[in-house]
Amino acid sequence: MPTVTLQPVSPPAQRPPSVAAVDVLRGIVMIVMALDHVRDFFSAATFYPTDLERTTPAYFFTRWITHFCAPTFIFLAGVSAFLSSSRRTRRQLTTFLLSRGLWLVIVELTIVRVAWSFDISSPVRLIVIWALGVSMIVLAGLIHLPRWVIAAVSLAMIAGHDLLNNVDSAPLVDAHGASLHASLFDWIWAIVHVPYFPVLYPLIPWIGVMAAGYVFGPLLTMPEAVRTRQLTWLGIAITAGFIVLRAINVYGDPFPQDSSHPFLSFLNANKYPPSLQYLMMTLGPAIAALPWLERLAPTAVGRIVTVFGRVPFFYYIVHLYLIHTLAVLTALLVGTSRFDLWVVYLVWILVVALLYPACRWFAGLKARSHAAWLSYL
Questions:
Q1: Distant-in-sequence, close-in-space partners of 167: CB < 8 Å, separation ≥ 6
Q2: pLDDT for 8-58, tens place per residue?
Q3: Nearest 10 degrees: CA dihedral of 47, 123, 196, 206?
Q4: How buried is 369 (Cβ within 10 angstroms: 0-12 exposed, 13-18 middle, 19+ buried)?
Q5: DSSP state of 179
Q6: Least CB-packed of 26, 54, 62, 200 within 10 Å?
């Protein structure tokens, strides 16, 4: 196998440290996300990693660490939208968010669907790229409102949606994927709140998470000392709020904790849909990490990670096709693609190493070119 040399790309001199930290955080998210998808294709486990009656700590934390990916990625998409407002008029930003959001929904229905199945006739699944796209479309309208209104809408979605957990609705399809002729309300409720197949990522509160990122963006433009203090304490406060809510256990997550597995259960917040506690558990540490990542960004490790963070869409599409192709080839060569967890980690490292040269090339292409179409990739 050819050796892959990781040659870091130096960040542009004019890139502010706070923006460089966003790229590093996004890069970390992309790297960790690949672990979850490698596990999907290569793990021999016959149980879900967060099933506390069957899992092991190794499988649990392999899944748990990837919980940080979707919330952080969608939150940073909102941050990026705000940062781009400094070089776009509001009308231009609206057009961009609308067109890119629609493009992402189309990608979910086509390119991503085929990546998961290698079958163009496979059932549609509305997952993270769909939620990202629709959130951008909604944000295109929200940016015309005062910042405090956007903040209020975001907070209401994130903190208030768990009040809706007891609203009854019915599944859209049966266990074999056949339509159950669900009512219009059932479809609407699946799209906005309850994850019934094919809607695996309902929109609330993901729209609120992206809007929160947009409102959060101005903090990154403050002087370094103020920025460091505010980001650190904001992240700590959100994380502490998670601990308090989790300990009280009366609101913010739909499922009771399991006293027979107290530590794992404490961390096992609900992702589908993402509960208030889940979002606080993941976004709090991510925000608190940003000042530290500002110092990491100029280092060799930071520059390597930044490569992935600058081309997230390209990375996402290519990594799905690469992982699935490796699984198919492995099954053809050895008769199976299902292995123990240590093999999953080896394949993950291989995938990230193989992706680096392609991402480095594409990051360089985007940096050198002013072609508008590249902003959609």
A1: 189, 193, 194
A2: 444 444 578 889 999 999 999 999 999 999 999 999 999 999 999 999 999
A3: 100
A4: exposed
A5: B
A6: 54
How many helices (H) and strands (E) the chain has is answered by 15, 0
- Tell me phi and psi for residue 137, to 5 degrees: -60, -45
Q: At 217, which helix (H) or strand (E)?
A: none
- From CA 297, how far away is CA 18, in angstroms rounded? 9
Q: How many CB atoms are located within 10 Å of the residue 224 CB?
A: 12
The number of residues making up the chain comes to 377
CB 20 within 8 A of CB 297: yes
Per residue in 298-319, pLDDT tens?
999 999 999 999 999 999 999 9
The answer to whether 100 touches 372, Cβ cutoff 8 Å, is no
* Cβ contact 251:213 at 8 Å: no
pLDDT at 375: 79
Count other Cβ atoms within 10 Å, centred on residue 376.
12
Name the nearest CA neighbour of 41 among 270, 321, 315, 313: 321
What is the number of alpha carbons within 13 Å of residue 282 lying toward its C-beta? 27
The predicted pLDDT at position 171 comes to 84
* DSSP β-bridge partners for residue 179: 173
More confident residue, 370 or 75: 75
pLDDT digit string, tens, across residues 242-275: 999 999 989 999 888 888 889 999 999 999 999 9
Between the two ends of the chain, the Cα-to-Cα distance in Å is 29
**Peptide bond connecting 273 to the previous residue in cis, omega within 30 degrees of 0:** yes
Residue with tokens 């941050």: 79
Cβ–Cβ < 8 Å for 302, 296: yes
Cβ neighbours for 189, distance < 8 A, ≥ 6 positions apart = 167, 169
With 0.85 as the threshold, say if the pTM is over it.
yes
- Cα–Cα distance measured from residue 344 to residue 330, given in angstroms and rounded to the nearest whole number: 12
